[in-house]
């Protein structure tokens, strides 16, 4: 019979000093982790498709195939890596931080190589090069993102502190998004056209910033929840428990659809502003307002969650965003500035999902411990990440196919009216429908409301205290 591991919230046995209390240092450390992640994640999400179509001259549908294949591979890599970490004995520096430190260097290097164009090569060479570098980057991304995402569940067990970590993580992503979305178009485009040399320069600059943030994350974060007895848990038992984890299944479905929505919107927006509005650099304004909208939402998170809970807060935000996108679709002749103004309302609405989703994931990890008695942070988080990668795969494939289907001509100086209309529909009506679906899933299927989440955290604290006392 497999012994039940003792899980405590004390300093690791190897530590010679009392463990530091949770505080602003942990929040900033966790912020820097996603700050580093999203320098390349957002760069890839927003600009890699246009880099492939306009610089490598790869057909949009072929890019869609590449994104689909790569993301499906990444989904498998996520689970494999999460399981690998859970079967390793933690070091004196923790269970997750050492992997962030080790793997961030090859991750950043592979990210830079994606945006290097060797002049004079054939189209066939560029296609093969795109497949290899993109898949390698995605694999290395798993080796950093899985331990980073899992780490939140061992930094603290307090629901309020976890909500703070989720908020700070999103702030890190927003800061990276602010830099990429505002500075990116100014760096990457020359005369409203993607420039190969500028893309390489941008990748190097963002790579330096990314590695600096990863080092700050490792330096400032502290893992507190430790498993004093390392046991090997059979994967079949884990999967059997996950099937019973209704909160996780619901969050998987909601996150998958949300990722499909915004990975595709991120890719389509480049074409929307470049071709429909004829102003690619206006994406800088959109990026700035997106970050501003999220920062406006941040002070509202704590009072709204305290009063209504995470579930209701996220639902209201999603509904607001869906209505705003629908309004944009119903006004196809809207000028660029009114369009951006209404889009800002939509961005404010879905900011609450981004601000709170990581707190949902830590609740899901706790629920797994509640029903199994086992702490499998890496495996459970990797399953969640698997759903996100599937969403990215679907979105990447759909984005490329959809852009091609509406008639976008990668080599053409102008686009047909039908193509422009189709791009507008992809950037407005599609997100309106998908966000409504996500809201309905959260409302009717997610079982952990405010009261049940607080009861879950209290029960687990009692269990851990009892285990620690009996050790």
From TrEMBL:
Transmembrane segments: 28-52, 58-79, 99-118, 124-144, 171-190, 196-217, 249-270, 282-301, 313-330, 336-361, 393-411, 423-446
Predominant localisation class: membrane
Pfam family, one: MFS_2
GO MF, one annotated term: symporter activity
Domain of life assignment: Bacteria
Membrane topology: Multi-pass membrane protein
Domain Major facilitator superfamily (MFS) profile stretches: 247-471
Localization terms from the record: Cell membrane
A GO cellular-component term linked to this record: plasma membrane
Keyword Transport found: yes
Alphabetic keyword roster: Membrane, Transmembrane, Transmembrane helix, Transport
Gene Ontology biological-process entries: carbohydrate transport; sodium ion transport
PANTHER family (alphabetical): MAJOR FACILITATOR SUPERFAMILY (MFS) PROFILE DOMAIN-CONTAINING PROTEIN, MAJOR FACILITATOR SUPERFAMILY DOMAIN-CONTAINING PROTEIN
Protein's recorded name: MFS transporter
Organism listed in the record: Paenibacillus thalictri
């Amino acid at each position: 019979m497999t012994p039940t591991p003792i899980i405590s919230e004390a300093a690791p046995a190897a530590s010679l000093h009392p463990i530091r209390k949770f505080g602003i240092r942990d929040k900033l450390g966790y912020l820097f982790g996603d700050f580093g992640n999203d320098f390349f994640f957002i760069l890839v999400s927003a600009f890699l498709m246009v880099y492939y179509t306009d610089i490598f001259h790869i057909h949009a549908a072929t890019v869609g195939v590449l994104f689909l294949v790569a993301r499906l591979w990444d989904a498998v890599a996520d689970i494999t890596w999460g399981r690998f970490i859970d079967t390793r004995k933690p070091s004196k520096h923790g269970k997750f931080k050492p992997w962030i430190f080790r793997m961030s260097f090859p991750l950043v290097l592979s990210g830079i190589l994606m945006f290097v164009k060797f002049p004079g090569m054939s189209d066939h060479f560029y296609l093969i090069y795109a497949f290899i570098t993109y898949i390698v980057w995605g694999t290395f991304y798993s080796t950093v993102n899985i331990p980073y995402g899992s780490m939140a569940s061992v930094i603290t067990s307090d629901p309020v502190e976890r909500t703070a970590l989720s908020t700070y993580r999103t702030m890190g992503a927003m800061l990276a998004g602010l830099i990429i979305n505002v500075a990116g178009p100014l760096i990457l485009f020359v005369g409203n056209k993607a420039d190969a040399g500028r893309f390489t320069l941008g990748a190097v600059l963002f790579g330096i910033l990314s590695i600096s943030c990863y080092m700050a994350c490792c330096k400032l974060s502290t893992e507190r929840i430790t498993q004093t007895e390392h046991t090997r848990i059979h994967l079949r038992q884990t999967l059997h428990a996950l099937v019973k984890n209704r909160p996780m299944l619901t969050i998987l479905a909601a996150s998958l659809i949300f990722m499909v929505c915004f990975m595709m919107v991120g890719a389509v927006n480049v074409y929307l502003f470049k071709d429909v509005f004829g102003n690619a650099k206006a994406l800088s304004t959109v990026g700035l307002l997106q970050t501003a909208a999220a920062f406006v939402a941040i002070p509202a998170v704590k009072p709204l969650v305290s009063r209504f809970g995470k579930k209701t807060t996220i639902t209201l935000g999603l509904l607001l965003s869906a209505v705003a996108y629908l309004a944009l679709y119903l006004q196809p002749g809207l000028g660029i500035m009114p369009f951006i103004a209404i889009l800002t309302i939509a961005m404010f609405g879905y900011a609450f999902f981004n601000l709170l989703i990581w707190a949902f994931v830590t609740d899901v990890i706790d629920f797994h411990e509640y029903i199994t008695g086992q702490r499998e942070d890496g495996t459970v988080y990797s399953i969640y990440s698997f759903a996100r990668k599937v969403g990215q795969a679907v979105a990447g494939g759909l984005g490329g196919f959809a852009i091609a289907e509406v008639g976008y001509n990668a080599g053409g100086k102008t686009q047909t009216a039908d193509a422009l209309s189709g791009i507008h529909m992809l950037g407005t009506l599609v997100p309106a429908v998908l966000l409504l679906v996500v809201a309905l899933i959260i409302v009717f299927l997610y079982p952990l409301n405010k009261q049940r989440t607080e009861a879950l955290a209290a029960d687990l604290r009692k269990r851990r205290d009892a285990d620690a006392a009996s050790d």
